[in-house]
Amino acid sequence: MIPLSTRMRPDSLEGFVGQEHFMYPGSLLYNAIKNKTFDSAIFFGPSGTGKTTLARIIAKEMDSSFTEINASTTGTKELKELIENAKLRFYGLESKTTYVYIDEFHRWNKLQQDSLLKALEEGVIRFIGSTTENPYFAINNAVLSRVRNIYEFKRLDPSQIKKLLIHALTDREKGFGNLNISYEEEALDILADLANGDGRVSLDTLGFIVDNLDLKKPITKEMVAEAMQRKIGFYDKGEDRYNLLSALQKSIRGSDPDAAVHYLARLVDGGADLQMIGRRLLVIASEDIGMAYPSAISIVTACVQAALMVGYPEAVINLSQAVILLASSPKSNAAYMAYATALSDIKSRQIDDVPGHLKDAHYKGARDLGLGEGYKYPHDYGGYVKQQYLPDNLYREGTQYYKPTENGSEGSFKKFLEGLEKKYERDHQG
């Protein structure tokens, strides 16, 4: 049986859902596809976000030969055969470029990736590579330099996933429209939320539910919970995850590890996603702990990564360690407030230009413009020398954005910065 996610793949740009940050009527990518000027691209992002779907739509719109392969199952021999066939098509009577979609492109080694270079340069093939890895680390620079466009696919938000689910339930050609299936609105909301931005997961879960559904009964939230094998305590108990996340952060900020662990347990018991909790803990580490204990962000990052690797149920051990560490650490929001205040100035008032002695003076002609003149290299002065860094008007006003506290390690940073000022005053007086 063909999975619902496969059956429901749209075959036109009009039916494509998500990625509005680069795909919308009038966008450069949209116009390139419609105008048939699309060249090559790399799509990267999580599974189930539309990479393969968009590649197939592009191939159809371009009205050209299209070959789809998976790097995990295709070797160098098959790739060479593909390129040779593309050459025959390009230099032969057809005179057409072949579009090649390579899924999981990061799985190829350097030699395999580089085997595409000549064909790309000659225009024999146009290439779409998809990967779940960051292409700047997983793909050779030689390939990146020949592929102009790199598009990051983001997880679908719940409203977009719900749109996919309703379309599947009402579409009479590809979906379940002929079955007249009823459903609880809340059930679709929960399914859209628990899919964690993965359209494929949401649709295939819906397909599993419908295939095993008594059609006389509606789709309920209990069915969704059973199909996803996930708790839905938030919905059963009327819990609001955002209230619990807020209570978790405020308990950590208030240095109450007992309350913080309590709210962590309620989040986990309610079916909170690991990434949801992890993201909030990483924010807390910088927003509320900050310079009072700078190592907190590193430790919490390690705990969150470990939790994602281990998964539930053991992941709660890693999360509990992170929560207790944060709640038991000295607190300071001075780093966050420094940025917020600086940004407020930028948005609300006229700021003078970068001082001339701080401007880039490495390019030809910069010195003739007086750029970089008078800059003092701190290392030539033992690591510190007094000079102006802020724009003129802020410097004249004595603007100070970072106001360190005495808490934890930040007290040491405060003493260090104050010591620099005192040293300058002593040297200047002497």
Condensed summary:
The chain is α/β, with parallel strands linked by helices.
* Number of E-state strands: 5
- Terminal CA distance reads 87 Å
Multimeric status of the protein? single chain
The helix/strand order is HHEHEHEHHEHHEHHHHHHHHHHHHH
Catalogue the unreliable spans. none
- Helical residues, percent: 40-55%
Strand content: 5-15%
Structural class: alpha/beta
Largest sheet, if any?
5 strands, parallel
So, the CATH homologous superfamily of the largest domain? P-loop containing nucleotide triphosphate hydrolases
Strand order of the largest sheet: 2-3-4-1-5
Number of helices: 21
Total separate domains: 4
CATH architecture level-2 label of the largest domain: 3-Layer(aba) Sandwich
Calculate the mean pLDDT score and round it.
87
Please identify the top-level CATH class of the largest domain.
Alpha Beta
Rg, alpha carbons: 28 Å
* CATH fold-level label of the largest domain: Rossmann fold
* Structural shape: globular
Describe this structure in words.
- The protein is globular and about 85 Å long.
- The protein is built from 21 helices and 5 strands.
- It folds into 4 domains: 18-152, P-loop containing nucleotide triphosphate hydrolases (Rossmann fold, 3-Layer(aba) Sandwich), CATH 3.40.50; 158-230, Helicase, Ruva Protein, domain 3 (Orthogonal Bundle); 241-327, Zinc Finger, Delta Prime, domain 3 (Up-down Bundle); 347-429, post-AAA+ oligomerization domain-like, CATH 1.10.3710.
- A 5-stranded parallel sheet has the order 2-3-4-1-5, sandwiched between helices.
- Strand 2 (65-70), helix 4 (76-91) and strand 3 (98-103) form a beta-alpha-beta unit.
- 29% of the residues are buried.
- It has helices at 4-7, 28-34, 51-62, 76-91, 110-114, 117-122, 135-138, 141-144, 158-170, 185-194, 199-211, 221-228, 233-236, 241-253, 257-269, 274-289, 296-310, 315-327, 334-348, 392-396, 410-429, and strands at residues 41-44, 65-70, 98-103, 125-131, 149-152.
- The protein is α/β, with parallel strands linked by helices.
- Helix 15 runs antiparallel to helix 18 (315-327).
- The mean pLDDT is 87.
